[in-house]
Amino acid sequence: MTEEIRQIIKDHGRLPIDADTLAANTDLPQAGMTSHASVNVMLALEDHFDIEFPDSMLKPSVFESIASIEAAVSELRSRVALS
Amino acid sequence: MAARVGIDLVSVDTVRESIREHGDRYLERIYTEAELRDCLGAEGTVPERLAARFAAKEATIKVLRPTDEPIPWHDIEVIRHPSGSVELELSGRAATLATDQGLGDFAVSFSHEAGFATAVVIACRT
Q1: Which CATH class is domain B2-125?
Q2: Total of domains in chain A
Q3: A29 — pLDDT class (breaks 50, 70, 90)
């Protein structure tokens, strides 16, 4: 899943650096991902993983890094699997 | 009385990309029905107007200074009056945050030029 998320960030995050150089815990806003670009990343994640981020998850810490996004996507997918 | 100010800058291209790739899902997720009406032009939704409103929402969040908590985008709405003047209307979590911090008299101004839109929001703390 990490590489799928990295590719989505690469395609939609409009980072000024190569997304391949991001560590799992690299701070994405610090790396140059704007708030509007994070919206595009969020929508692309929803499309790719067939999930929907609820309002309660629309906070900076969720979109802070590849690792935090992966944790959120995993949680949402497990909710879908249980429902 | 102290004032707080927030500013944001949005690339219009990123808004175009969002409309192209995510369509109504993007529009309805971020903007209220009234905002979408206000952003309609002769040839459909005008990305520059959307970008200005997104910048206004982000500038407002900077004024509200939330800790790590979600503020739904619809909680911050740009109201456009027939005269062309604009103001902010806060609801939900955004309104609660403003009240809790004694913030009021929000004022917004925005502009767009050369592929970017910017917004400034000021609020007074009493």
Answers
A1: alpha beta
A2: 1
A3: very high
